[in-house]
Amino acid sequence: MLAAGRGRRMGGAKHLRPLAGVPLAERVVRALLRTSAARVRLVLAPDDAAGRALATRIGVAALAAEDPDEGRAASVRAAVRAAASDSRGALFALADQPFLEPDDFERLFDAFRAEPGAIVRAEYGGEPGSPVLFPADCFAELLLLRGREGGRSLVERRRERVRLVSLPPEHGRDLDAPEDWPAESAPLPSAAHMERTFSIVKPDAVRGRKLGAILEAIEASGLTIVATKMVQLDQPKAEGFYAVHKERPFFKDLVKFMTSGPVLVSVLEGDDAVARYRKLMGATDPAKADAGTLRKRFATNIEQNAVHGSDSPDNAQTEIAYFFSATELVKR
Ligand code: CMP
Question: For residue 238, how far is its CA from the centre of ligand 1 (angstroms)?
Answer without folding.
Answer: 13
